[in-house]
Design goal:
Helix content of chain B: 40-55%
Strand content of chain A: 15-25%
Strand order of the largest sheet of chain A: 3-2-4-5-7-6-12
CATH topology of chain B: Rossmann fold
Number of strands of chain A: 14
Largest sheet of chain A: 7 strands, mixed
CATH architecture of chain B: 3-Layer(aba) Sandwich
CATH topology of the largest domain in chain A: Rossmann fold
CATH architecture of the largest domain in chain A: 3-Layer(aba) Sandwich
Shape of chain A: globular
Number of helices of chain A: 12
CATH class of chain B: Alpha Beta
Strand content of chain B: 5-15%
CATH superfamily of chain B: Thiamin diphosphate (ThDP)-binding fold, Pyr/PP domains
Number of domains of chain A: 2
Order of helices and strands of chain B: HHEHHEHEHEEEHHEHEHHH
Number of domains of chain B: 1
Number of strands of chain B: 8
Bound molecules: thiamine diphosphate, magnesium ion
Number of helices of chain B: 12
Radius of gyration of chain B: 19 Å
Largest interface: A-B, 37 and 42 residues
Structural class of chain A: alpha/beta
Shape of chain B: globular
Distance between the termini of chain A: 38 Å
Strand order of the largest sheet of chain B: 2-1-3-4-8-7
Helix content of chain A: 25-40%
Oligomer: heterodimer
Chain lengths: 323, 324
């Protein structure tokens, strides 16, 4: 076990997979000479060379479309979108190509590709650069969408994503790169599409993922001082969505709070709440609560931005409401 | 070029104001008073100063996120620019936009857009609005070299030609899109050749020389106003600072930067003004001092300005009509 940052975990996964399989290569804006705008691919260009660490023009559609084409020939591209906000410039290729080709051509087209990108607010980057539109991407069958919240999961899931034969959108969080955690030694993978209990508890189920795992964990610590033991289920993958651990926990606690960073309407919480009502209605002791971003484009001003983002206190409050 | 002395001094004043405002902004950023991204225009001041000095009030201006200088040239005060950088209610976007999203529609400044290339189709639309409504306004659209590699650029530029839209496309070729040189990202390194492909008349200008930029802009605007459709200007320039704050600048040498700093646009203009005996060194020095005071006043104004009220969070999501 080593204690490393999220950045190191992601970087190691990429490095090890590139060492392991010459078909794996990276393409994206500033991934090479710059070393990645979040420094994830620092040192890669010098080690693997310009052929395998390809700086692209600012051309998101060509990055994703190009990755799709290369994947169809059997390569395993890891296409980096500098932030998820720029994924909208590649939406057609993500949604109409990547998510459809395998199915639409009767399984002939195989796309072993990863779209690595970064989402999240809280850095005063303003409305266009602070979004958490994970649910938008999770809407599309044919695409896998994952967003780990710990270094261990990030490393293991990125390896699984690279080895997967389906297009995987791997969403990192801009404010998690410095977070440290224990990571197993050697080569290991964490499967995609498997939720995990990150903190056991008996009184209430908190369902969350990515950055909000950190927020929820802090809330759980505060609640524990009041004798309330929250069980935290980390979704890790939004599609495929593994409801098993969520339902199992809910059947025990009969109460749930769902915490996500994106907007509430049509969000991850909406989906989880609906599934709880559909699949565990008899166990419901209180209305399921959702904690999410206020429904505004995120403002630049620090105070307003923090008002709009889900805070630890919001989670504590929501838990108290369902108890 | 037929310019009165006051006009020259005004342009010089604008360039120095941009320079000192941004140097001050960099300090405030280090102090944590400005957050988010901060893209400085230092080194490129002659481009927007010369360009916008050539516009008429009915001409619209739209640009990317490197927008503080453009805002000043469009007539926004140092106070409201500084206040926006500090996220205050008195900022030009009420503290909601920040560095990358400044605008003042009353001054015909249509923003500050942070998605690379995304504002180019908007420029075509602004120009369509003027064409449709029979005004003689021209839309001036500024963007970087890097932006010419994204599809939006090609769609917008093509449309402007097909519909004969009154747009002045201005590519600020500062040699890099973040850390990627033009040669590594663009099929042609003379960007104006891209306009050639769309049959749009075009030219290339030295962006370190404010007088040259101004003359080329006057000519281009006259051409467009004559009903001839779009024109494309490539302006060669260089940013002296990193792409944004905290840029490790591994992609270029300090020698290269110093070499470009030899042709500092403010220095070049200073020499022109004194060389042509338009203004004395003392007069210009006095202006420099005046600008320093203006910047200090702007910082004070911004620091003393109120934060946006909490209610502001939910204001302006949708049109709410006139509100006091
Ligand atoms: C669609 C999109 N992709 C990527 C980015 C990130 N980004 C911001 S500025 C920039 C470089 C732009 O270079 P250029 O157009 O030359 O303008 P300059 O910064 O040199 O003024 C990049 C890649 C973005 N904002 N939008
Ligand atoms: Mg550039």
């Amino acid at each position: 076990m080593a204690r490393i940052t999220m950045r190191e975990a992601i970087s190691q996964a990429l490095w090890e997979e590139m060492e392991r399989d010459p078909k794996v290569f990276i393409l994206g804006e500033e991934v090479g000479v710059w070393g990645g705008t979040y420094a994830v691919t620092k040192g890669f260009y010098d080690h693997f060379g310009a052929e395998r660490v390809r700086d692209t023009p600012i051309a998101e559609a060509a990055i994703i479309g190009g990755a799709i084409g290369a994947a169809l020939t059997g390569l395993r591209p890891v296409a980096e979108l500098m932030t998820i906000n720029f994924a909208f410039s590649a939406m057609d290729h993500i949604v109409n190509e990547a998510a459809k080709l395998h199915y639409m051509f009767g399984g002939q087209f195989v796309l072993p590709m990863v779209i690595r990108t970064v989402g999240g607010g809280g850095r005063q980057l303003g409305a266009t650069h602070s979004q958490t539109p994970d649910a938008v991407f999770a809407h599309f069958p044919g695409l896998k969408v994952v967003a780990p919240g710990t270094p261990e999961d990030a490393k293991g899931m990125l390896k699984s994503a690279i080895r997967s034969n389906d297009p995987v959108m791997f969403i990192e969080h801009a404010t998690l790169y410095q977070v440290r955690g224990e990571v197993p030694d050697g080569d290991y993978t964490v499967p995609l599409g498997v939720s995990k209990v990150q903190r056991p508890g008996r009184d209430v189920t908190i369902v969350t993922y990515s950055k909000m795992l950190e927020i929820s964990t802090k809330a759980a610590e505060i609640l524990a001082k009041d004798g309330i033991e929250a069980e935290i289920v980390d979704l890790r993958s939004l599609r495929p969505l593994d409801m098993g651990p969520v339902l199992e926990s809910f059947k025990k606690t009969n109460r749930a709070v769902i915490v996500e960073e994106g907007w509430r309407s049509f969000g991850v919480g909406s989906e989880i709440a609906a599934r709880i009502y559909e699949e565990a209605f008899d166990y419901v002791d209180a209305p399921v609560r959702r904690v999410a971003q206020k429904e505004v484009p995120l403002p630049y001003n620090r105070t307003l931005e923090q008002m709009a983002l889900p805070q630890v206190e919001d989670v504590v409050q929501a838990v108290k409401e369902v108890l | 070029m037929d310019m009165k002395k006051e006009e020259h001094l005004d342009l010089y004043h604008q360039m120095v104001l941009i320079r000192l405002l941004e140097e001050q902004a960099a300090v405030l950023y280090q102090q944590g008073k400005i957050g988010g991204f901060l893209h400085l225009y230092i080194g490129q001041e002659a481009v927007s100063t010369g360009l916008i000095s050539a516009r008429k009030p009915q001409d619209r201006v739209i640009t990317a996120y490197r927008d503080h200088g453009v805002a000043i040239n469009c007539g926004l005060s140092a106070n409201e620019v500084m206040a926006e950088l500090l996220g205050k209610a008195t900022g030009c976007s009420k503290g909601k936009g920040g560095s990358m999203h400044m605008a003042d529609v009353k001054k015909n400044f249509w923003g500050g857009h942070a998605i690379v290339g995304a504002h180019l189709p908007l420029a075509s639309g602004l120009a369509l609005g003027d064409l449709y409504q029979g005004t003689d306004g021209v839309t001036i659209c500024m963007f970087g070299d890097g932006a010419t590699n994204i599809g939006y650029f090609h769609e917008a530029v093509n449309l402007s030609k097909v519909w004969k839209l009154p747009v002045l496309w201005v590519c600020e070729n500062n040699e890099y899109g973040m850390g990627t040189t033009v040669e590594r990202a663009s099929a042609v390194s003379e960007i104006r050749q891209k306009a050639e492909g769309y049959g749009i008349p075009n030219g290339r200008v030295d962006g370190m020389n404010v007088m040259e930029v101004r003359q080329a802009s006057l000519d281009a605007l006259a051409h467009i106003r004559g009903g001839n459709g779009p024109y494309f200007m490539e302006v060669n320039t260089y940013r002296f600072r990193g792409h944004s704050m905290g840029d490790p600048e591994r992609y270029r040498t300090q020698d290269e930067v110093h070499c470009w700093q030899e042709s500092d646009p403010i220095g070049i203009y200073h020499n022109y003004l004194t060389g042509e005996k338009i203004a004395s060194k003392e007069e210009l020095d006095a202006l420099d001092v005046q600008v320093e005071q203006e910047i200090q006043a702007a910082v004070q104004f911004a620091e003393n300005s109120p934060e946006p009220a909490p209610e502001a969070l939910f204001q302006d999501i949708y049109y709410e009509g006139e509100r006091e």
